[in-house]
Amino acid sequence: MADALNVLQGPLEEQRKAEMAEREAIIEEAAAIDPHDRHAIDAMRALQQRWQDHARALPLERKSEQALWQRFRAVCDDVFQRRKESMHEADIERRAHEAAKEAISARLEAAAADVTPATAAKLLREAQAEWQAIGPVPRAHEARVEKRYHAAVALVQQHVDQVRRAAGVAQAGMLRDKLRLVQELEQAVANDGAGDTDWDARWTALPSLDVDMERVLRTRFDAALAALRGAPEARAAYARQLEGNREPLLHELLRLEIGAGIDSGPEFARERLKLQVEVLQSSLKSGHGAKGSQDGAAARLRDLCAQPAFVDARTASRIEQLALRLAREGK
Q1: For position 294, what pLDDT does the model report?
Q2: Which long-range contacts (CB under 8 A, 24 or more apart) does 94-102 make?
Q3: Which residues contact 35 (CB under 8 A, 6 or more apart)?
Q4: In whole angstroms, what is the distance from residue 306 CA to residue 218 CA?
Q5: According to the model, what pLDDT value does residue 293 have?
Q6: Which of 118, 120, 104 is nearest to 157 (CA)?
Q7: What are the start-end ranges of the H helices in the chain?
Q8: What are phi and psi of 203, to 5 degrees?
Q9: Which stretches of the chain score pLDDT less than 70?
Q10: DSSP string, 71-135
Q11: Arithmetic mean of pLDDT over the chain
Q12: Per-residue DSSP letter, 191
């Protein structure tokens, strides 16, 4: 009986040695798992399944089985514990990132009421750079944090747009006053200086416009004043120039009103329709859309104001309305 058992025991021991080597390999694989790897849990579960499969296929001696199992379980517990600690640290870090990003949004919200067009670009640029440098936030809070940041940026931009429009409206009012003075001076040229006044003092009493528009109107003012103070022949020549520019100025004013979407009045309906067709054809040939005709609206208004011409009260009012519309639209 003993000899028969020895014949069977030999091959069984060899298989058990091989099985122990396989269990040792599983333990080594488990110890090599990186707990920070996002697939760590799946890998550990796969090793646990392999262990169970081997244990069912060929059980070891009880003492050896328990010793190997205790080692394997200790390695598994260590991986799970380190992963738990890693996830806890990552969660703390993500919450710190969330607090930092919320602070950026709060800073933008607080600055929105006082920011100026001159400082807004720098403020938004620095906020964007700081935002990009901060790591991820908790996934459950990503949408809310992003939404608040974009809303804060929009709030700053909205305030800047309001400030610009307010400044533009103020400029439009100052432009109206100076343009009226220039138009009055040009009318005085035609009237041979009737209603003599201290034109220089009146000009100086008005606030300055932006650099380009101030230069344009000052040039026009100086030319009219020189004609007024010149010889009768000079005044007459300048008056003819003012009259000759009346129609071109009306044509350009109509074009600008079309671009700005301003009603020109029923008396200009036919001419406006004809000009609209010309503008559309021109934009199609040049490959630009309808918006392209509005891109230089401010510059074209400046060119319009630079043109010395006689204007009646209706035309003067249309120019003022055009300037106000462009100012409100931030152009």
Answers
A1: 41
A2: 94/135, 94/136, 94/137, 94/138, 95/137, 95/138, 97/134, 97/135, 97/136, 97/137, 98/137, 98/138, 98/141, 98/145, 100/134, 101/131, 101/134, 101/137, 101/145, 101/149, 102/145, 102/148
A3: 79, 80, 82, 83, 86
A4: 9
A5: 43
A6: 120
A7: 2-31, 40-57, 62-111, 117-133, 142-190, 199-205, 211-229, 232-244, 246-260, 269-286, 297-306, 313-328
A8: -65, -50
A9: 5-10, 193-196, 281-295, 330-331
A10: HHHHHHHHHHHHHHHHHHHHHHHHHHHHHHHHHHHHHHHHHTTT--HHHHHHHHHHHHHHHHHS-
A11: 86
A12: T
User: Among candidates 218, 245, 250, 270, which has minimal Cα distance to 318?
Assistant: 250
Please give the span between the terminal C-alpha atoms of the chain, in angstroms, as a whole number: 108
- Which amino acid makes up residue 17? K
Look up residue 178 and give its two tokens.
Answer: 């100076």
Give the pLDDT score at 193.
63
Structure tokens at 100: 């930092």
**Which tokens is 147 given?**
């939404």
> Encoding tokens for residue 88?
């806890």
CA–CA distance, 319 with 314 (Å, rounded to integer): 9
